[in-house]
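Worked problem 6 (solution included).
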Amino acid sequence: MAKIAIVVFSDTTSMEALGKISNAFVLANEAVENSDDLKFIFEGAGSKWIGELENEDHKLHSMYLGLKNQITGVCKFCAEAFGVKSEVEKAGVNLIDEYKNHPSLRNLIIDGYSVLTF
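Solution. The predicted structure is:
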């Protein structure tokens, strides 16, 4: 069993970003199918994805719903900074504030996770 941490930093504003979140979801699905230990975190401008993906008309909405219970959380600081904290809370996704209101990526490394960023 692998220990995989997926961290999405990509903004929501381009086709490249859409490709990155899509690829992050593909990896997450593969990890779930193989019973890997998965952490899925939205950080930086990536915190804006939750509100986007909650929209039923978004092309990745179904994929998001299939993985929603696998999402570890969203950076609290970044959700506040990008003005999406209420969207994250409304979606029922955890806000993470382990180190100075951010997720601790260092702890993931110490705990043996392979950290992949998108």
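Discussion: The longest strand covers residues 3-8.
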